[in-house]
Amino acid sequence: MSATAPVYQLDFRGHHSVSHGALNSALTTVSAAVVAHLCLQTGFATGLQVALSMLSTTVIGLMMIFLWGTVGKTATGGKVAYKSAVLIGSCVWSALVAMATWTTETVLQYGGVLIMATVVMGFVAWLAKPLEDQTDETPDALAELEQAARNDLGAEWQLRLQKRLRCEGIGTPNISNFPHRSKDGLLVGYTVEVRLPPGGLGWKDIAKETQALANDLDLGIGCGISVRMGTTRRSALVDVTILDILCEDAPYPKELERRSIYDPLLIGVSRRNEPAGPILRERNLGAYGEGGSGKSNCGRVIMAALMQCVDTLVCSLDVTGVRLAHPMIDAYLRGEVDQPGVWWVAFDEDEAFLMLRALNRGALARNNHYNDLKLQHNDDKMPCSSQYPQFMVICDEIKHVGSNEADPRLYKLFKNIHDDFRDPGFRAISLALRGTNEIINQGIQAQQHVVIVLKAKSKEEYRWGFGTNIGDIEPSDAPYPGCAQMRMDSAEEIMPYHIYRITPEQLMRITADTASWRPTVDEITLLAMNGRDVNGEPFEDLEDGELDCVDGRWDRLRAHLGIRGSAAPATPSKPGKVDSLDTIMEKLKSQTAGLIETAYDAVNVDIDRQVSEFDVDTTLAEIFKGFPNPPKVQETTQEEIDHYGLIYQIICDAGKDGIKASQILARLEEQGMTMDRTTVYKWINTMSNRQYKGKIEWRPNREGSSNGKWYQVEE
Q1: Strand, helix or coil at 224?
Q2: How far apart are CA 76 and CA 70, in angstroms?
């Protein structure tokens, strides 16, 4: 074993305090004097024999002190002189007391001398202590002591393994400490490197003996042994945890770091006291735990880690409300940050349907249109980045979506993301009470590569989450609140961890601090999610409310939460139950048209022209000006007015053949105008309902079709 390997847990140099050393020397001296006196009184030894014993003891002690300071080179001259003086004085005092006649007077005299000598020598040692602390022991001597400690420990493990495996020739070439110590600086554990001899034994044979080895070491709660494969099959690394680190509180780290979905998501600390977590670029995750086990905290810790990924967007799916995502969207809803921590929140089954349908469309669009991107990066999976972000769907109360009793439509859409859309960058995280069919279907559970089980009461709960092959794990391995057994991947070992504890205040701070890190959705994916093809034309198979559902997601959430002063939902979460803004405006217009017509009749004005140019926004603002939150007048910029006129001219030039929205965009680009499709589509819809209402209209290609063209209305 290398002499430079880390120091083992114990300090074999026997350091003690000054007071402890002085008292120990005094008591040892008294004990020697009492034993010698009893030997004289009982005739067991003569005075000459006692004197010779004292003399020989003094000589041997002085030789040991001299060798310790010269040959060993581990002590200064001052230490040698001090210890020699203490030894000679102790032996002389013991000899005199042993051979004296014990009376009250002699006992008090000799006792006083001993007490005075102890105080004086202790005071001298106390004065020399600062100088001693400044004098480091030589590195060679320390290395020899550390090496001896590891040799002893290695010999113990060699005998232990030979006994358990019934095999001779087992070697322990090295022992190294865990790199991360406890908060108090204590060693958490060490790793024993083991080499097995030829004959058929391998590292898995040691792994089968972990419980027996832990029992042999008499390890406490939260401690244990795990075995990993070394460089070959006959090489093993035995990790021995000797300090219960899981019982310590694990607050979420204050330092934030820009990370990627390709990096491990640090969600807790291992039994080795190392920050740890899974890589979720191509993996689904399932977290299981009964009420009060810390499952929701675990979900929020995962979301906090995902918010620090500059190439990831989080979608929260909880049909029972917005409890899980609320700390990450509250500041955005109140207008305090520009970007929420969660990209989309599905708060009921209707919104979940819109979200999952949109995500499915986005994934299919990526499969069809980004093959060149994969070739460019020489990757068989779509490379996720801030331009092409990964989508992580975290579903709380998974039984409403992924169980045998869930809505079949939601189940199928969620399972598509879970099973089929790893390539385009769509993965799922499920939070469940337990891994049974009435909570989560086995078809979904089978594709959960990362599994976390919190606060299990029995091995049966581990089997629900991990399957039947759970090895020797026990609930006592993770006994504290916040502790969990976790498997990082399908083929990896199940290990205990302590999940970080995060507070709502921390989540809100992380949301604000990482707002500028949030990526944007690529155009093709966003169009597909909004229900449009690459040319901006609506898909033919859309259901009610799906067209432009991404754009209206926050308006629907505000309406659900009853936030006053916000715009009406652009797309209702429950189609048919909430009127759109255009519908409301038409109703108000029809209700006031009669009054306006009467007023204009009185002054003999062209009623048709006035009604067609009726400004609903201004009228609404005037009608509701006394209300606390009157509707805002939609002001049109000069740039928009110029573009409206140009678009109108393009539609007029198309004549009776009409023109698609994508073709309008192409005409604008020919004239040197660069803008995204979404802006153009919104402008066309706006001008058709406002300044150019009655002058242009959209007509489907055939009855019932979602595809069509824009035409000029002939007067």
Answers
A1: strand
A2: 9
Higher pLDDT, 137 or 661: 661
What's the DSSP call for residue 515? G
Q: From CA 330, how far away is CA 340, in angstroms rounded?
A: 8
Residues present in the chain in total: 715
* Helices 661-670 and 677-689, axial angle in degrees (round to 10): 110
CA dihedral sign, ordered 240, 243, 245, 247:
positive
Model confidence at 630: pLDDT above 70: no
3-class secondary structure, 501: strand
Report CA 29 to chain centroid distance, whole Å.
60
How far apart (Å, rounded) are the C-alpha atoms in residues 90 and 102? 18
* CA gap 364, 382 in Å, rounded: 12
* Mean pLDDT, rounded, of the chain: 80
User: Are residues 473 and 494 in contact, defined by beta-carbon separation less than 8 angstroms?
Assistant: yes
- Nearest one of 332, 254, 389, 335 to 511, comparing CA atoms: 332
CA dist 268 and 285 (Å) reads 15
Judge whether 424 and 382 are in contact, CB under 8 Å.
yes
86-92 contacts at long range (C-beta below 8 A, 24 or more positions apart):
86/25, 86/121, 87/58, 87/61, 87/62, 88/58, 88/62, 89/117, 89/121, 90/25, 90/28, 90/29, 90/32, 91/32, 91/54, 91/55, 91/57, 91/58, 91/61, 92/54
What is the C-alpha to C-alpha distance for residues 84 and 76, in angstroms, rounded to an integer?
13
How far apart CA 45 and CA 16 sit, in angstroms, is 35
Cα separation values, 642 from 637, 647, 683, Å: 9, 9, 11
| Segment holding 86, helix H or strand E | helix 77-99
Tokens of 666: 């192409």
Q: Is the pLDDT of residue 544 over 80?
A: yes
Query: Rounded to an integer, what distance in angstroms lies between the CA atom of residue 148 and that of residue 299?
Result: 47
Instruction: Render pLDDT for 332-343 as a digit per residue (tens, 0 to 9).
Output: 999 899 999 999
Q: Count the Cβ atoms, other than its own, within 10 Å of residue 429.
A: 28
Assess whether pLDDT exceeds 70 at residue 72: no
- Reported as a single tens digit per residue, the pLDDT across 411-425 is 999 999 999 999 999
Please identify which residue in the block is written with the tokens 């009921």. Answer: 348
DSSP code string of 426-456: EEEEEEES-SSTTTS-HHHHTT--EEEEES-
Query: Model confidence over 222-267: pLDDT tens digits?
Result: 888 989 999 999 999 999 999 988 888 899 999 999 999 999 999 9
User: Among 159, 156, 153, 166, which residue's Cα sits nearest to residue 205?
Assistant: 166
Q: Report whether 714 contacts 697 (CB < 8 A).
A: no
Alpha-carbon radius of gyration of the chain? 40
